[in-house]
Specification:
single chain, alpha+beta, 3-stranded antiparallel beta sheet, binds zinc ion
Length: about 80
Amino acid sequence: MSARQTMIGALFVDSGLEPDPADPTGRLRRIRPPRAGYACYLCGARLGPVHGRDVPAFVADTSISHRATCPATTTQGATAA
Ligand SMILES: [Zn+2]
């Protein structure tokens, strides 16, 4: 018996870092502030993007908090995709 898995959302995180081409050790350099966003595949909501210091809390909380309030899962009679 195998469990069926369904992707219900995607969390996008851009660290804003890339390898420094001038550094042979591959050290990372910041080229832009970090940013993050979330897309819900059940209701179509797009949350964010958020930038900078807001990214860690967004990444930690958004998918869980949205799941609790997602119209596709909280509306009576709705069916999950
Ligand atoms: Zn949703």
